[in-house]
Amino acid sequence: MTETAEETAPRPETVDLARAFEESGTREVLRELDEEMIGLAPVKSRIRETAALLLVDQARRQMGLATETPTLHMSFTGNPGTGKTTVALKMASLLHRLGYVRKGHLVTVTRDDLVGQYIGHTAPKTKEVLKKAMGGVLFIDEAYYLYRPENERDYGQEAIEILLQVMENNRDDLVVILAGYADRMDRFFESNPGFRSRIAHHIEFPDYTDGELLQISEIMLAEQNYAFAPEARAAMADYIGLRRHQPHFANARSIRNALDRARLRQANRLFAEAKGPLDAEELSTITETDLRASRVFRGGLGTDRARVAQAAE
Hints:
5-stranded parallel β-sheet; 7 strands; globular
């Protein structure tokens, strides 16, 4: 049997991890994570640890100390709006730079993208998604909905079996991230031990603090060339404190919704009040009035209709 160039090449006696860290672009991905995402200290710490593990794994491979690709499938647990999808994008970029996936793209799906509605429908749907995800990362949001034991005619189990097989046989070319609420994911893993045995990294996403959500709101506005008036910033802080304790709170997602509503009120206010030309500052400033008109400040959520309306804010 003819030996490959890789097999005949001399093994290095030492490996410079610091140089590998710089040349791989890992530092850049971690810097982006720190600069672009507020808070999430434990999540960022776990990702740095994972990057270190992979750099050491590569060093061991170069010295002939390891041959198998480490298991990289992951579980992201936490409440909505805590940055799970964004971190998955960063993870895909990190894995690509380190050479663990070929393309580094992220394919985000839910149950509806994988599970069919009739016999023979699920397998081709699931396989098509997996085909698109190969060479990158497959992110399955609210993964626990794949398993519905109360419905004997549900086809989710078929999708699960296909996923498990691919996760085991194609782990050199695909990383799967399962995401959702922590308690529901725990029950999902208890019911599907095959997934638990294939998941090597479990990362918990904490809720943002009030201060972090205020920072996030300012960044979201700045990205659209808006800003808070001084008194509006204080009103936003009050909004966050109240909104957190009301129904359907979804961290940064709720903040984005609140800002969309504030911009709508600002536009209507400008039309109602304008008596002449408006300058850029007037067109780009969110005032206290634009925020305090929210139902969140009124309270009195006595009806289902009011709860649904408030969820949009």
